[in-house]
UniProtKB/TrEMBL annotation:
InterPro entries: MFS, MFS_dom, MFS_trans_sf. This is MFS transporter. Residues 14-461 form the Major facilitator superfamily (MFS) profile domain. It comes from Nocardioides mangrovi. Keywords: Cell membrane, Membrane, Transmembrane, Transmembrane helix, Transport. It is a multi-pass membrane protein. The chain crosses the membrane at residues 12-29, 49-68, 80-99, 105-125, 137-159, 165-186, 198-218, 230-247, 267-291, 311-331, 338-362, 368-386, 407-424, 436-456. CDD domains: MFS_MMR_MDR_like. It comes from the Bacteria.
Amino acid sequence: MTAALDRRTDYRVTFLVLCVGVASFSLLQSMVNPVLPTIEAALHTDQSTVTWVLTAYLVSASVFTPIIGRVGDKVGKERMLVVALGALAVGSLLAAVAGTIGVLIAARVIQGIGGGVLPLTFGIIRDEFPREKVASAIGTAAALLAVGGGVGLVIAGPLVDALSYHWLFWIPMIMTIVATVAAAVWVPESPERTPGRINVGTALLMSAWLVALLIGVSQGHHWGWGSTKVVALFVVAAVLLPTWVWAESRSDQPLVDMQMMRIPTVWTVNLVALLFGFAMYSTFAFLPQFLQTPESAGYGFGVSVTESGLLLLPQTIASFLGGVFAGRLAARYGSKALLVVGAALMALGTFGLTFLHGAAWLIVVESVVFGLAFGLAFAAMSNLVVDAVPQSQTGVASGMNTNIRTVGGAIGSAVLATVITSSVEPSGLPVESGYTHGFLLLALMATAAAVVALFIPVVRASTHVVPGPQAESEAELEPQPSRT
């Protein structure tokens, strides 16, 4: 017992390891986006095929994030953290040496398994850190996800110019190998375990509807929203989603406990995550594209990939600062207040982008507002969900929240692509009104997220565990008042 306690004394070492893992995953989310044309040319493929480099990663991460989180709840978060980081390292190595587009897509699927790093990180922080340090640590870790996305956009261009696109994978691979070894050596075993087996049937059902939905959404713009393939995928998702919910509700050992998902705090935060993800990830995808549009189109600034990344660097810094200070602000004002403010800032920034985008400095100011919104909202969502569920369900609850935010981002990016390209100039570039309407849509979604956030009931799950198979679904879900 003494040895176990001694091993857990310095939580700061654990936190450093977790941050390296989260940073590696977040870099892989964004660094590839700006250089897809480079990859397309290097691997002698076409535009429709190269988009699967993004789609494969998105689908894989969405499927594995909640599954790895739930497995970690059951068999140990430290053990599964090593698995998730190991998958990131293997996938990055395969991507770095890939000589064909098929191998690269397969590598991205393997990398997606690393999505489990996020819920496992939040669970380990809750297990290992002093109570007063949890909110701040989760805020910083959550902010790293947004920061990594911004850093990826900044360094992708210079890295490819100086070396090659292969280094977009070599660098995360090196970081991940270091994190994997460090996790195996220094991150302690989980003190909290959920008894029972993994429900393979419901895991397959969840995977099936997610794959159908996300492929349909991500490819709808290319295949046509009314095409047979896209409609069929949406029908499959519409049938399998309620089937999955029904199966989970009737299962003695659910993968995702539907009682947990019905906790008012959990489902309202998840709804905010969907709406916020819609707005946030779309700005990552289309703001650099707007900046790079030639001035001859009547808008845009004609900057390079590298220059657009540098213009958005202040956004990344603001995201990090927002996440770092979120813990202190939450202790004083509550995580709900931070989420409302974060969503409101997102709405303010996107409304500004809609009507004031004629000068580069305006874009920089608005992107700083986005950055603060990302940092505050990511931290607040994670803290609210973690604090509302039993400790034994932290991994799966965090995984589903992350997943829902990702689904929102996929839907938002697809819808925005359709809106922006609905009318094009003779040169093939979108007309300015396409961007204006698209940014306005993002502002409305962010506003909706802020409104929903106002109605989040804030509770804290009891840590009391009642013996028996119903412990999770009964005693552990009893809410208690909380200021978080």
